[in-house]
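Researcher: Let's walk through a ligand-bound prediction step by step. First, I give you the protein sequence. Second, the SMILES string for flavin mononucleotide. Third, you return the three-dimensional complex as structure tokens. Ready?
Model: Ready.
Researcher: Here are steps one and two:
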Amino acid sequence: MYLDFNKLSSDQVYFHIIQSLIPRPIAWVLTQNRNQSYNLAPFSYFNAVCSDPALIMLSLGKKPDGSRKDTLVNIQERKFFSLHIAHTELLPALNQSSATLEYGQSELDDLNLKLCDFAPHPLPRIQTCRVTYACENYQIHTLGNTAQHVIYGKINHCYLDDTIITYQDGGKIKLHADKLDPVARLGASEYAGLGEIIKLQRPA
Ligand SMILES: Cc1cc2nc3c(=O)[nH]c(=O)nc-3n(C[C@H](O)[C@H](O)[C@H](O)COP(=O)(O)O)c2cc1C
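Model: Step three, the predicted complex:
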């Protein structure tokens, strides 16, 4: 079948995109609220966009009441965020952190997650996550008829857990995807782990 996206509502387009553009990586984003508590939320409209500078993008819609999501408010006001790649064991906590809460109420209050220092980044990171990026706001673009906010974040440094890496000849770091065990978003309430890893050399 063919779908004419120009004739569909934004809800219908969203529904089709999230089911077909899969699997999507998930950014698990920690920011700081005005009252100093920490906000945590997952976003799967997320990817890498540039290596110089090192940039990722997140695309945020609105809260059900039409107001800005807390993550956007915090990044606009305090610019820094810690972006985690969660492993499959953390999926229940990641899912729970997507609850819509009042601004200033921390998702971490109900989650059994330990934070640790991530200096020189001003925010902590979730200790158990195996990859975390220390990011700051680079640019925010507002686009679309329903005002989607695209946040470009500059990665200043990165934490890689020692259990997921080995050193190759010449000191190059090999990250073992199976040991990272990232969780991916599919459509609706479906998620996926990595499944089979296929190795294939690129043509010259
Ligand atoms: C796996 C997953 C991925 C999500 N991806 C997005 C996304 O890309 N953009 C978005 O606006 N909301 C996304 N959401 C919904 C937000 O996580 C949710 O609105 C959350 O309450 C936002 O929190 P905040 O207001 O604290 O920033 C996603 C939810 C889940 C469970």
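Researcher: And what stands out?
Model: Residues 118 and 125 are 6 Å apart (CA to CA). The mean pLDDT is 97.
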